Fold each of these.
Amino acid sequence: MSEKKILLLPGDGIGPEVMNQVEKLMNFLADRSSFSYSTETKLVGGASYDKHGTPLQDEVLTDAFNYDAILFGAVGGPKWDGVERTLRPEAGLLRLRKELDLYANLRPAVVFDALSEASTLNSELVLGLDLMIVRELTAGCYFGQPRGIEELPDGTRRGFDTEVYTQPEIERVTRVAFELARKRKNLLHSVEKSNVMESGIFWREIVTKLHESEGKNISLEHMYADNCAMQLVRNPKQFDVIVTNNLFGDLLSDCAAMLTGSLGMLPSASLGENNSNGFRRALYEPVHGSAPDIAGKGLANPIAMILSFSMMLRYSFGDKKNSSLIENAVQNVLKNDFRTKDIMQNGKVLLSTDDLGDSIIDELDKHT
Ligand code: IPM
Ligand code: MG
């Protein structure tokens, strides 16, 4: 494998500690397989704001275009609550997504057998669950104009955002969902609120047309977002791939994450367009946030971050072998009853972030 240039953006809170675990893992893989890499680490989010007064420096953004892939930790925390919205830690992440045009956010929710008891749902409801949420990531009310908070003539104020989608924005994310559905169970749910919103009516119309022209062999169901939230906790195994807008995807993916037992388990990939030489810009990040309350205490679960790296191997570097080895190692570590605090159960062995990271490497050591 040619040397891969990877940009590391650990960010805030538990971001740096979980990123450390991936760095150990990359080092191990480079020793033991054809995986070859170089990294650079830069500031993002609150850490960047504290040092440079902005959550994402222009030069970091410009530089981000020069890497084969980006690994992102987490951003945010109460420390920056008082900061103006455009300078908040989250704004750094949103700007990266938008400027790199990472429109397709893949959020798999997979329940590992050993953890089916850790879910807040009955284990038989989630045992074997494997679903994929495809969240549109660069449009909708996250970026729609106009937005703001303003004073009205009568002296009261109002706050507003704009939910807006263009035809190409809906089509391109739907194509990604088609592609995934074809490789999986060929079942796709498109989720919106076409019973209430114009943008929802439009979403359904565009998905339906694209399905007729490009996705006939896929079985497509339309579902309202509120019903989808309810169905996710009622009978999650009815889903295979879900495609939805930015805001609904944000909500539904947290909900799906919890089905797996902990937010600490879920990785994600944010992908751009395939260019002519097959390269696709990509950022990989855990779905969990910066968890400032447990930061620096060795309590964080590194699995979502490690699985995000495994998605990088699969989607950016075509390295299915190492990607599967990592997934199996995670599975085995859980089978061996090792846990971090968020997924701890009676009779299991509680490990620190660092020790769980090491136990995943020990597992890999047996198989590489
Ligand atoms: C996510 C997060 C982000 C989002 C925040 C940190 C801006 O919740 O990736 O799900 O809302 O997209
Ligand atoms: Mg979220």
Amino acid sequence: MDLLEYQGKQVFAANGVAVPSGEVASDVDTAVAAADRIGYPSVIKAQVLIGGRGKAGGIKIAKDGVEARAHADAILGMDIYGPRREGPFRVHQVWVEGASEIDAEYYASIILDRSAKKPVLIVSRMGGMNVEEIAENDPDALIKLHVDPIAGLDLDTARQVAVDAQLDDDLHDEVAEVLTKLYAAFLASDATLIEVNPLIATSRREVVALDAKVTLDGNALFRHAELAAAAPDDPDQDPQEKMAKERGLTYVALDGDIGILGNGAGLCMSTLDVVANAGGNPANFLDAGGGSKAEAIVDALEVITSNTKVKAVLFNIFGGITRCDEVAKGIIAAYQQVEMNVPLVVRLDGTNSEEGLRLLGEAGLSGLHHAETMLGAAEQVVALAKGTPA
Ligand code: ADP
Ligand code: MG
């Protein structure tokens, strides 16, 4: 999970890293009031989960209240595109902070290097531009050090990185301290990435994190209830994705009209392929997971059919740990609890499939079709979605 800049800065501050003080605002008046409190010049910064906001016009310095109002008004609600045209990311919040007098702009990051099974610390004297640009323009300016996760990062080692990166001599000690605190923040928040770009030296030679990009390990979020809760509800998020997430289902929205449910990511992927091959357009990817219980099946069907574009649904279950009779019970329960106004094609194979099919047969559910093979099921669901059942 990615944090917004201001949330990342909260993580930094909690670990002793200096950040400009500021306030978050989601409307113009609040932003201006914040700037008035902070004093001028202050900076109005778009809070979106994409870098390059400065270049995109999402970061502006205000020298007085009039400018603060104009900037907040322009930035709130604007659509920001990433450096590779990712997006648009609509700005729902701004962060208002005091403007720093910048003497030097450096780059620092800590990234979990999965292949090395260690965090890697990267520091450069060339801050402000993105790291790909640094790597291209001046690869020698990027100093990398893998940190032993048991030993951690000590001050001497961190200082050597600052020296190797040729940061200004008078800053080596302070940068070393900031790097160890960033490393502490990385560990404490179970982050997979922390990027500070730029890490600046102010005119008073203080080292301050002016930007913050923090990615948390989603699997460790349960240990950070406060951060997980602080994550803004993304108003642009697909409603089915949101619903699925609340129910702990793995769901990806696609733009077709055939709802898909499978158990296991591999089976789901191949189900998408088979449906596409049969001439259909999948509306989603939904992995009910191994050992799917009846309850999960009800949830899954509710999520899939809440998408009004869906014209037919394909249930492709290969029973292993998952028992087909459990799945059948889930389907029957879903027919009782959810308004099933689209046809459903079911293929049940593997553990307890006969029992599952018997239960479904006895329930006599209208609009329910059974297919023996995956290909047959795909052809049937495509025909039903097109309104031309065989
Ligand atoms: P992004 O990386 O998304 O463009 P940053 O937070 O890095 O956003 O800001 C871009 C640039 O704006 C910085 O490199 C810096 O020059 C300037 N800037 C950002 N925040 C401040 C601040 N508080 N004071 C002065 N300049 C700032
Ligand atoms: Mg930046």
Amino acid sequence: MACLCRDCAHLIDADAASCTNCGSARLVTHPELLDLSIAHIDCDAFYASVEKRDDPALNDKPVIVGHPGGRGVVTTACYIARQYGPRSAMPMFKALQLCPQAVVIPPDMAKYRQASSQIRSLFLKATPLVEPVSLDEAYLDLSAGARLVDRAPAILLARLARAVEREVGVTVSVGLSYNKFLAKLASDRDKPQGFSVIGRAEATALLAPLPVTTIHGIGAATARRLAEAGITSVRQLQAMPEDALSARFGKFGRALAHLVHGEDRRRVVADRPTKSISVETTFSRDQSAYPALAAALEDLAGRLEQRLKRASLAGETVVLKLKTSDFHSLSRQSRLPHPTQRGDLILEHGLRLLGREADGRAFRLIGIGVDHMAPATAADPPDLFEA
Ligand code: TTP
Ligand code: MG
């Protein structure tokens, strides 16, 4: 049985009650601790943690990040606020009913992006195999140095978590396992400031009692269908032979048969390219008139152009997003002849798409984005006939 001190990253005797090197009581003990090398790291209440870092007066207060006012939604709530019920994606008015004393802070994306890239640089010091999933989470494959004692993945991870706390000022939760699915499951099991390990020997039994939505690829809709058939726990899926899963789930059935036993063949892929960039706005009052919607779109197209230029990216498909007053989301796409960064071109396509949807319905949100990304160098080839 191996035991690691999370504060000084020393390996110590497994039966010690506190670290024999530094005295800390923050220990992780697991029989497979030194055999596992795939990690998932996720920052704790990320946006709120960055805000607390920048204003220590907020430290002991419930903090909600999101646009204030009745119509915004919560992007995140700090762990103090969560005790009262507020959660990500909850309407702000509801979050404030649950926790009226919360301090509400509007999001500052530039700041979170900066913290995120700082965190990513620290990850890259531990391994080149870093796969970012969002601003605040990434998978790491630490197997390269795994056989060297001082490069054991668990040790690197303990050092990394401390480095992020010290240098960026936010805490993270670490999940360590032998594949991505279980590493992510692990990081979520012990939050905030967690370090959770799932080994091969325990995977099947650990998954058995969990709800089917635990499985990567089973979303709310599939879970509802399964529930109608009386299937709610992973244990029930574990009992089904692969053929039965394939009959029910088609192509996904085979992967599912492996996943329910904790097997996941996906690799950690370094630096997956950005798949899309978008911007959106929620109206303070629902809008149905075309001119008002078009004006909002023009604003957004300008912002999108700035975002694309900052990221040195271009997109070949324009995506218009609308949400009706009764929360029905729709998205419409238009393919361009070439990738673009130009706000005016994006707007032109966006307006055409909008023209087909603005039929008197009231909308609460409008957004525009691009996908099918390309590097800026491939954007907007000069038009021979335009000169
Ligand atoms: P998460 O990692 O899902 O949440 P979190 O970091 O706030 O909290 P946890 O400790 O549970 O990991 O998302 C990261 C950030 O993404 C979060 O700080 C805010 C943003 N976000 C939204 O804007 N909308 C959402 O619905 C969610 C879930 C997150
Ligand atoms: Mg997080």
